């Protein structure tokens, strides 16, 4: 069995959500699906996939380790996150092919299930606190046992997709939102809060001390990701569980935070970090430090299936991000998706990842890959993280 074609699909579903899917075909008739983690770099990643195809076309899809090493290290310079996204999509698709070629679900190739289903959390959303509270209550009523939201934006986006983000005001809103949501859903529901790398360490520490009373399950991305050593400073000052890692493009940025026990939850993004091949290594590494994984999954059904496959076969799992209930969005593009019930997700016992992608629908739903996305500026005009 050899790889015969790798093709990218930048599409918009009937919901209006965008996806960037990669399909890998073989001469045996099996095909696999992957997904990239940074649609905002879609133009560059498209070219990276074309470049990496030179290494993968004609290869045996079972040789995932060799292909990963060659894709990451060829050309002397190690892959950055743009290339890691491309590697991720191709690698996930190769695992999908491997499962289909032996008539087994991917999670059985990863060691077999250690759990029947994976506890998951959705995205509670709202432009203000009352809207956020209503969203939280709807999700709890639907059966979700965890909730997640991030810092509320402090202004509307203008025509060039720029908004004003006021860090001081946002800290106050964040504390008030936590109080309101906790009061609305009670103490049985676990709450996760995403700082989204938007605050400086001093403000993060101040906010987290105020949030201790509400017992969050974790605080996510409380610092920017470029310098993992920053978590040593935060670890000394924050008395809350810390989750981080979604922006890291390989195992190496995880090294310090795992080895020094600077985080409690590893936010591995399978569609950025290098696919299933790399995520599996990080997961087992984290296990030696009793760090649970909470895979980052803000994307579509392919990403969800890859994440849940890993979680079903891994012992050290905290909870799985699942923005919306699988099977309820964009079923024309993705006619088969993974399963969900009462706050749990799982991959069905079918070959591969357990998700499918309608190529005819994708051709009709094509959109140009994105370049620059939304941006935040502070009240003084300075650029800040979105």
Tell me the structural class.
alpha/beta
Strand content: 15-25%
The number of distinct helices, counting runs of at least 4 residues, comes to: 12
Distance between the termini: 43 Å
Per CATH, the class of the largest domain reads Alpha Beta
- Per the principal axes of the C-alpha atoms, what is the gross shape? globular
The total domain count is: 2
Number of strands: 16
Q: Can you describe this structure?
A:
With 386 residues, the chain is of the alpha/beta class. It has two domains: 3-103, Enolase-like, domain 1 (2-Layer Sandwich); 108-355, TIM Barrel (Alpha-Beta Barrel). The chain contains twelve helices and 16 strands. The strands form four sheets. The chain has a six-stranded parallel beta sheet.
Question: Which labels suit this protein?
Answer:
386 residues, alpha/beta, Enolase-like, domain 1, TIM Barrel, 2 domains, six-stranded parallel β-sheet, 12 helices, 16 strands
